[in-house]
Amino acid sequence: MVKRSSVLEGAASLRGDVARFASRLVQTKSLSGQEAAVIEVIRREMEQVGFDDVTTDALGSVIGRIGSGRTRIAMDAHIDTVDVGSPDAWTRPPFGGEIDGAWVYGRGAADQKGGMASMVYGMKLLKELDLVGDFTVYVVGSVMEEDCDGLCWRHLIEKHGLVPELAVITEPTNLRIHRGQRGRVEFRIRTTGVSAHASAPERGENAIYKMARVVSAVEALNARLLGDPFLGKGSIVISEIVSGSPSVNAVPDRCEVHIDRRTTVGETWDTVLAETRELLHDVGVDAEVLELNYDEPAYTGLRYPMKKVFPAWVIDETHPVIAAGVETYRQVFGGDPEVSRWDFSTNGTVISGVYGIPVVGFGPGDEALAHAPNERVSIDQLVRAAAFYAAFPRVACRRTVTREQGE
Hints:
- By secondary structure, the chain is α+β, with helices and mostly antiparallel strands.
- 35% of the residues lie in helices and 23% in strands.
- It has 2 domains: 4-182 and 312-406, Zn peptidases (Aminopeptidase); 183-294, 2-Layer Sandwich (Alpha-Beta Plaits), CATH 3.30.70.
- The chain has helices at 4-13, 15-27, 36-49, 109-128, 151-158, 207-224, 269-283, 320-333, 348-351, 379-406; strands spanning 53-56, 62-66, 71-78, 103-105, 135-142, 166-169, 177-181, 183-192, 227-228, 232-233, 235-244, 254-263, 287-291, 293-294, 306-307, 309-310, 313-314, 339-342, 359-361, 376-378.
């Protein structure tokens, strides 16, 4: 049993440290594939607060280890961010990392450098309060999530050999317990035509006009996609359209659209592909469906290609990892947490969606501020999240051992 007062008081004593660390992370710009500087900041902080070991994998993610016990627990925060968009939309410098009495401000504060700061100081608190048990905690600052969620964990599992029994995703949840997310498939549709001089369009075949029928059909499809009682319905969006022709005075002979298809339970690349081909057949358009791969280099120079297929995942509310999250919340804060899901995608798409490792979500910050101007994270939430992370491993280890003995 974790003593509520000691954990909360211990976390409160670290308030200034965790806020300053979150600020330094925000000040260190780290777009996907450009995370080297922020990884170094995290590595130094982990060493300073007393992690037992700190390493990086070949893709560049940083891994801090606490303990050497039997149950392997991973805690993950991606430390890359999207860019700022229009600077004029920001009332504070997006990389200023400004702190006032209540908030840390700037790009990545909520999504999700706040989670990283809380994890590091949660582990400092775990050691200070002697909450170490028969477990090993791997605190991961993962790279390239914004460009290709889950890629970092494919590498950690497949090449680095980090295969935990359970994992905590620290993406923003407003301190709710999250147990799932919709998935995503990205692909393109290409139509082709025959070019002709724009003065005589009847001599050609316009690839944009063919695509126009596809665009209308995709919009209609979005309204009738199936839903899941917990995750919600799937969705489909055309997020980009491009065309080509010999000149602007010619009938275009090619057109492509980029599709972002959010998937729910039971939907896979095969079902999405079949659905798309049926759509093209129904509108009478001969078009090509292009499966996409991500193959950009990490800041280390390594390429680790991955199909842009990101499965949905849901952990049953009675699963021991969710029960451990709920019990930790009760022990640390009192009362019952709200149990919900993310609207966006996380590294859980690979950890749980591909590899079946049970995942619980708990993080500081508001999901609605992710990718938005004037991003910020509550310092109170940073402190409370650190308390949760300090207490969770012992609770989770006890529940895991009990489950194994019961089996």
